[in-house]
């Protein structure tokens, strides 16, 4: 038996693996390499588990990396904007940081948790 065969009708080559010929398929190359941070990783985990059709479609089309990078940027912009707005609204300032560091840390941690939940609800888990 031949190790490799080529089907001219489909344009796919096959390689012998044991008793079966398996197609030599590869994913399309990613066009760009962009940063995927915590938000992109969270979204990736979410679509892998809950939106399998979307994940498979993005993966096989070669657009997964770009899509996750877009989600990362959108979520990070929302996070930064909400942190700044809510910190000003709640009076968490550099003056508080200089005067009472532990109170500033406590309030910033609470604010970060609240903003993270908002970003998760509006961008990640949709």
Automatic annotation (TrEMBL):
InterPro entries named among the record's database cross-references: TnpV
Domain of life: Bacteria
Pfam families: TnpV (PF14198)
Record protein name field: TnpV protein
